[in-house]
Amino acid sequence: EFVALRLENSDGCSGRLQIFYNGTWGSVCSNSMTLNTVSLACKELGCGDGGSLETRLRYGRVSGPAWLDNVQCGERNSSFWQCPSAPWDPQSCDDLRDETHITCDGGHPEMLPDPLASCPNSTSCTDREKIRAVGGEDGCSGRVEVWHHGSWGTVCDDSWDMQDAEVACRQLGCGPAVSALHEAAFGMGQGPIWLEQVECRGTERSLQDCWARPGDSGACQHKEDAAVHCSGEVFSPTYPTRDRLTNSGRVSLPTIIFIILGALLCLLLALLAGQVLSARAGRR
């Protein structure tokens, strides 16, 4: 499985340490947490070579699993992912005080895809406000752009597929995805390319919940900006009503096939009934 680190509810280099595992972001417990572990986490995040543990918890507990406990990085470990720990367990720490909160010494987190900064003119930015489709007609199709560290940026089309587009369309509030488009189908964007190699399962609530690489490798250019075309329909978990079917003005392909098969079945039953009646009449 893909794994990744982020500092959730933070300014980029301080906050709650979270790890992406098994398709979900979760916490890291602070038991046996050492400064070596904090330093390697900060290096992994691009936030300097060291840091400190926070004792005053400024961030409320979030829902979700607590994946790791007893992470013990030593001087011989060169990467956070090489450090020994307790087995992966979504119930590693149940107490808010056990969650790891760190502050890194420095670095420039502008190249990190998570967490995204507050959106314009909003004190509490929602996932819906962290994404937009640019270049289309109705906001449900266009070049995919995400808000991060005070500016809008694009998404590289490397590995961009229908699962990624499905998540983007859901986050946009535009229903199921129709197509995942490549090579700046709606024109080239400007500014940073925030995400590369996005790998969504298709069930995530937002692109920020998917695994992705920071867009700082230089391997992607704006001529490779990813785009989506969404259906524009918001589906409820219930069956469609008569009004929705009427307003849509069209019948889906499965419905047409079902009608045709139903008509053929009725015709076959009618022929069989005719043969039965004919046979009875012959016997009489």
TrEMBL record:
SS bonds (residue pairs): C29-C93, C73-C83, C156-C220, C169-C230, C200-C210
SUPFAM superfamilies referenced in this protein's UniProt entry, alphabetically: SRCR-like (SSF56487)
Listed InterPro entries: SRCR, SRCR-like_dom_sf
Cellular component, GO, one term: membrane
Signal peptide span: none
Segments crossing the lipid bilayer: 251-274
Pfam family, one: SRCR
UniProt KW keywords: Disulfide bond, Glycoprotein, Membrane, Repeat, Secreted, Signal, Transmembrane, Transmembrane helix
Taxonomic superkingdom: Eukaryota
Residue ranges annotated for the SRCR domain, each copy included: 5-105, 131-231
Subcellular location: Secreted
Name the record gives this protein: WC11 protein
Organism: Nyctibius bracteatus (Rufous potoo)
